[in-house]
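Here comes my example:
=====
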Amino acid sequence: MALIEFHGVDKAFGPKAIYTGLNLAIEQGEALTILGGSGVGKSVMLKMLIGLLKPDRGDITFDGKSIIGMKSSELARVRQRIGMVFQGAALFDSLTVRENVAYGLREHFHMNETEISERVDWALSLVGLPGVEAMNPADLSGGMRKRVGLARTIALRPEVLLYDEPTTGLDPINTTRINNVIISLKAALSVTSIVVTHDMKTAFAVSNRLAMVHKGRIVASGTVEEFRNTENPLVHNFVTGQAPEDEDMAALMARSQ
């Protein structure tokens, strides 16, 4: 049984359909990257998984239990097992790095100050930022802010890590740093990783498997090697960054059905 499953999920915002019959299974311990163009609903999938959005139809299960219709107390327990790393790091500018990383520990766990301090040091060390505890977020580079946001998430020791566009806005060097952190955390913590991105360098670097969203459903799923060598023109154009000619678009869409 997969750890996470989407079963026939529909989701729309007004007249705009985001998902129509979404089916996806994610195995425990794997690193899956969700690909797709802007506006296809990649981040919506993550938000449905943690209960921030509800599907209009279908079911979503986590560890064998449906999260649809869960009581708030049950959903809170699920969320403690799933950590989300937001695109903008979402740090509190009025708090130091140490206070930011410790925030969730103080909110959700009964830990003394020594235990909190040790956990903060551990999390910052894992993302390659020891010694920055007293700094303020405004004094950090964009890449450092993202890593502090990641440290705050892993300090809670989740079983699943959700990464929402983790390298957006970063230069190539910091992109590589973040990719390496994602890879090392999967190895060190044995977490299940779900990465949402349209950055193919990140997708190929961090994934065991990739899944591409198009027109409300998964149109392709496979290994990095299978995506590199795909004969599916829709996937090939996305992976290589080639824009099809307008006259070829109808044929492309037909072949993806």
In short: The domain at 29-43+70-207+218-256 is CATH 3.40.50.300 (Rossmann fold). The mean pLDDT is 89. The chain has one domain: 29-43+70-207+218-256. Residues 172-189 form the longest helix (18 residues).
